[in-house]
Amino acid sequence: MECFFGLLVFGVIAILVNCIGLGVGPSSRSRLFQQLVRRFGGFYQRGGVFRRPSVRFRYGSALVTIQAASRHGVGRTTQAIIPWPDATLDVLLEPRAGPSPSSRPRLPEVASGDPAFDLKYVVSGAHEGDVKRLLSNGVRWQVNRLHQLLGGTSLRVSIRNARLVIEKAGRMRRWEELEQFVQLALEFHDQAILTRDEGIEFLADNEAQLVEEPICRICGEPIVGDMVFCRRCRTPHHLDCWEYNGSCSTYGCRETRYAVPTIAQPLDPSDTPNGDT
Length: 277
What we know:
The chain has 277 residues and is of the alpha+beta class. The chain folds into two domains: 17-194, no CATH class; 208-263, Herpes Virus-1. Helices cover 32% and strands 23% of the residues. The chain has helices at 2-22, 29-40, 115-120, 128-134, 137-152, 175-194, 239-245; strands at residues 43-45, 54-59, 62-71, 75-83, 91-95, 121-125, 155-160, 163-169, 208-209, 227-230, 236-238, 258-259, 262-263. The chain has an eight-stranded antiparallel sheet with strand order 1-2-3-4-8-7-5-6. Strands 11-10-12 form a three-stranded antiparallel sheet. A two-stranded parallel ribbon has the order 9-13. Helix 5 (137-152) runs antiparallel to helix 6 (175-194). The longest helix has 21 residues, at 2-22. It is globular. It starts with a helix and ends in a 14-residue tail after the last strand.
């Protein structure tokens, strides 16, 4: 009898945990995640006693995971996990005013050079130069957009062990909220990946710069020539693709103005004064 009662209690607990993971009603996490599959493809994995509900889909060559999670002191969260090409990079970003600081040992703090951003967020990393390069204008802008989602709830962004993890606190009850979180996470990834291309550096007008064939997000092809970039978020495009689209392709940006980067040509020895080398 006691054994039967124990099994019954365990069964009730399992059902409750499963319901918490899946949610109930028309706006449940289960149905929202299934909408993600219809929107991005991939497949949905139901949650259970020892498994988090999740969606996995392809984004370019990367397998993206969107999953339900929880964190002590924060409660329910949603995570976007995307492979990162550099296994040596170790970065953690969190708002300074947060309900629960990271429990892992804090690495040295790195300033981005933007006083307003540095006042709002704490960024720590093992290699200062790599972290500074990561914190481009586009990346900082995406961090602010992620933080503002759901009324400014807790945010944590980390790159460690070849994984980019973006975690946002708060239960996303509406499809629009979950879709926007996923879009912003993918756009953060895109902006962060751009910082790995040392030849890409958007400078002020009339200053030469080297550009190394970034990918146009409208057609998906490398940008070999006729490149423009968004004046707001600095995302590169083909000129024809920009004119066809009418605005920036970054979700939510809606910028209609573009800038044309100056392409630095290889130095010809004959161009030096007196032909000296």
